[in-house]
Amino acid sequence: MAFLDQAIELNELPQATTSYELLPSGWYDATVAGAELRDTKTGGQMIAVKYSILGPTHQGRLVWGNINIRNANPKAEEIGRQQLGDIMRATGLARVTDTDQLIGLTMSIKVAIREAQNGYEAQNEVKGWKSTQGSAAPAPAFVPPSAPAAAPAGKQPPWAKK
Fold first, then answer.
1. For 106-118, what is the mean pLDDT?
2. Most buried among 27, 67, 133, 151, using CB within 10 Å?
């Protein structure tokens, strides 16, 4: 048992104003508010992503999604890797080595409603990712220039002449 340093009175606590109604299906601008690697029930791994809606409506609402990156089912893994690729393309991210790199990224997400099934209530799910409309296209990843072609035998390139 742990004693609190103070008495907490119910009538002094704020009430939640958050709505738990499903978001209508459609495209929303969102930012990644959280991302962490989790083990799946079948021994694989997924990235659990929390999106915070920026607009055009429902600002501040949260939507969650899971992206399989390792799965015993090759099709599930392929789909998850395609989804991660869609996120990376939508945000201009060329390489990911840590889930923290996803946090703060902004994109448009397509929210759908998955009907109730297997004892679970209906819920929102993210079905698509794209660059936010009206923003500049993501900057391409830096690719170092290739080495200059070798000069023909007996000739020096112009920058090598003394």
1. 95
2. 67
Residue percentage of the chain with pLDDT more than 70? 79
Q: What are phi and psi of 10, to 5 degrees?
A: -55, -45
Q: What is the mean pLDDT of residues 52-66?
A: 95
Listing DSSP states for 43-109 in one string gives: S-EEEEEEEEEEESSSTT-EEEEEEEEE-SSHHHHHHHHHHHHHHHHHHT----SSGGGGTT-EEEE
Q: What is the mean pLDDT of residues 29-50?
A: 96
Residue 134's CB is within 10 A of a number of other CB atoms, namely: 6
72, HSE (Cβ side, Cα atoms, 13 Å) = 5
Minimal CA–CA distance to 51: which of 93, 13, 23?
23
Query: 35, 96, 40, 93: which is closest to 68 by C-alpha?
Result: 40
The DSSP code sequence of 114-153 is EPPBTTBPPEEEEEEEEPPTTSPPPPPPP-PPPPPPPPPT
User: Model's pTM, two decimal places?
Assistant: 0.72
